[in-house]
């Protein structure tokens, strides 16, 4: 098992529809140490087929005609796959499906959305510790990757402390705590004081704090208050992924262009790119601007690029992609031709020697018995 250092680090939080590959790579470029994928439910992952995309140079997992997950070598060793699950066996099957392409597995124990809770996943696991314990132990013992989990506070401090001690005992490598309860929305300040008892109770693994960590410059203050080992940034990164920079935030326009270029490079579906762009700012000036309306009305990646003056970049990359596609097609054709020739040679040799398909013939057309006979004569 490859170890991951979760101590004294800054993480990109798992965010549904935000934490796709282009956004994760943007966060890494700006200084994130580890990046969490968006939550993916076990049943969606199980049965996904792994494929290499030579055009974008990505590893992709497809289930039918739907893309489940994609990753790139630039995030190798730093991508944590977050799993939504309510079943130990399904959790393990899903984790094993993507094991070779992720650095670690994180179990979502904090999502308060109805879909997760009704299915026994996410925040439902906070009050079902027996189930959570079985899930974590099964993963820790069998997946062969570092396992972590992300929780929220319970209403009573003593219940939270009891929960985190159980989690620690399962053998997980780290724990992240969102300092709000499942009922508390982000408009309510995070309860950093509530983190202190957790940090005191958990002594053998790093504990990261999440909630109102808006940028790198907040980290020292929040660590001083909470005693946290590491920090996880969510909304701050959503609004401006340069939140991870030690040097401070970059201008919005510059960051957006960096993100869009990665979307073009990776052929991200325009609907997701558009969603992320519209989620990056709640500033009334922006939401009433012509640029915002142009993003809203965009029906393609090219239209989004045009809104930011990146149409030339789009066409350059598309030309590169077309060239890669032609090279891949030619390579596939050559491989198919070689395979066909090898098969024809094999069939010819089998016919010559009157052998069944199960019998072996070497490259010289000799049967195993013939080779053995020659060795004995020598």
TrEMBL record:
Protein EC: 1.3.1.-
UniProt catalytic activity: a 5,6-dihydrouridine in mRNA + NAD(+) = a uridine in mRNA + NADH + H(+); a 5,6-dihydrouridine in mRNA + NADP(+) = a uridine in mRNA + NADPH + H(+)
Top enzyme class: oxidoreductase
Active-site residues, record numbering mapped to chain: 111 (proton donor)
SUPFAM superfamilies per the UniProt record, alphabetical: FMN-linked oxidoreductases
Sequence ranges of Basic and acidic residues compositional bias: 334-350, 366-378
Organism domain of life: Eukaryota
The keyword Flavoprotein is annotated on this UniProt entry: yes
Span list, region Disordered: 328-378
Keywords: Flavoprotein, FMN, mRNA processing, Nucleotide-binding, Oxidoreductase, tRNA processing
Span of domain DUS-like FMN-binding: 12-260
A GO-annotated cellular component: cytoplasm
Obligatory cofactor(s): FMN
InterPro entries assigned to the protein according to its UniProt record, in alphabetical order: Aldolase_TIM, DUS-like_FMN-bd, DUS_fam, tRNA-DUS-like, tRNA_hU_synthase_CS
The protein's role, per its UniProt record: Catalyzes the synthesis of dihydrouridine, a modified base found in the D-loop of most tRNAs.
Family assignment from sequence similarity: Belongs to the dus family.
Protein name: tRNA-dihydrouridine synthase
Organism field: Syncephalastrum racemosum
């Amino acid at each position: 098992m490859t170890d991951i250092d979760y101590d004294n680090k800054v993480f990109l939080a798992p965010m549904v529809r935000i934490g796709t590959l282009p956004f994760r790579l943007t966060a890494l470029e700006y200084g994130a140490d580890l990046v969490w994928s968006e939550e993916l439910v076990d049943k969606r992952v199980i049965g996904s087929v792994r494929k290499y995309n030579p055009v974008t140079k990505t590893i992709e997992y497809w289930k039918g005609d739907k893309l489940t997950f994609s990753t790139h070598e630039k995030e190798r060793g730093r991508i944590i796959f977050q799993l939504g699950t309510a079943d130990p066996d399904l959790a393990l099957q899903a984790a094993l499906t993507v094991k070779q392409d992720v650095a670690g597995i994180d179990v979502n124990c904090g999502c308060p959305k109805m879909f997760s809770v009704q299915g026994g996943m996410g925040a439902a696991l906070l009050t079902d510790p027996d189930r959570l314990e079985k899930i974590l132990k099964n993963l820790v013992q069998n997946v062969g990757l570092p396992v972590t989990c992300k929780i929220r506070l319970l209403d009573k401090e003593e219940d939270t402390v009891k929960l985190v001690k159980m989690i620690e005992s399962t053998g997980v490598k780290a724990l992240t705590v969102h300092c709000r309860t499942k009922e508390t929305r982000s408009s309510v300040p995070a309860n950093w004081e509530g983190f202190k008892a957790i940090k005191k109770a958990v002594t053998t693994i790093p504990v990261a704090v999440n909630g109102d960590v808006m940028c790198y410059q907040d980290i020292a203050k929040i660590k001083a208050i909470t005693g946290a080992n590491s920090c996880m940034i969510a909304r701050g990164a959503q609004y401006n992924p340069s939140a991870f920079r030690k040097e401070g935030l970059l201008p919005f326009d510059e960051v957006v262009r960096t993100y869009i270029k990665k979307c073009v490079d990776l052929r991200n579906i325009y609907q997701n790119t558009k969603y992320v762009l519209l989620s990056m700012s709640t500033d009334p000036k922006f939401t009433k601007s012509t640029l915002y309306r142009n993003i809203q009305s965009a029906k393609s990646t090219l239209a989004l690029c045009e809104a930011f003056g990146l149409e030339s970049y789009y066409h350059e990359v598309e030309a590169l992609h077309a060239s890669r596609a032609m090279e891949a097609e030619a390579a596939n054709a050559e491989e198919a031709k070689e395979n066909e020739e090898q098969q024809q040679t094999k069939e010819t040799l089998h016919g010559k020697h009157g052998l069944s398909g199960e019998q072996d013939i070497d490259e010289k057309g000799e049967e195993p018995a013939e080779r053995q006979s020659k060795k004995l004569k020598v």
